[in-house]
Each structure stands twice: as C-alpha cells, then as structure tokens.
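Q: Sequence in, structure out?
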Amino acid sequence: MFGRCPLNFGGLGGGFAPRHLNRSAFSFYLSAMEIFKALLIHLIVPAAGFLWFLKIRDDMREKEIERPPVISLFIVFATYGGLLLEQIRNQCMV
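A: Exactly. Output:
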C-alpha cells in the first residue's frame, strides 16, 4: 500500500507500521526497548524531577523558611532537567 512510511521524513524518523504490511516497506519500527527509552526520557525522568522539586518545596514550607525561593528553584530544576534529558536522549540515540 505504501512505498515507505508516511511518517519517515527522509529516513530521519518513523512511526508505527501496520502489521499486515511487509516490514521491508517501512524503514523504521519501534521495538520494545525503543518504546521504553522514549517513556523513560519523556515521562519518567521529568516526573521524577518534578516530584523531587515538590518534595523540596514542601520541606521548605514545613521548616517555615521565610520567602522560600520556589520560582528560582523551579527554574534551576527545569534548566538542569532539560540538560539531563538532552544528554539522555543523545546517549539513547547512539
């Protein structure tokens, strides 16, 4: 039906190929490991970082710190989290 995957832009990416089509018609399939890596990079690591931020924020509130740096702390977590995700993504793509 398709000569190549419609989501495969010049061989750079891909999508899910229907099972009834020949595997040779598609240049990219997501294996279970690739799905796990994608979930790890895009869901698990950011969720863990956000939960860690919330824990630190709650600890600051519990200890009644005057004017806790919540916004600054969030910016630091977001910045380092983005850098971490980029490094993980680069390592997983090799």
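The two ends are 31 Å apart (CA to CA).
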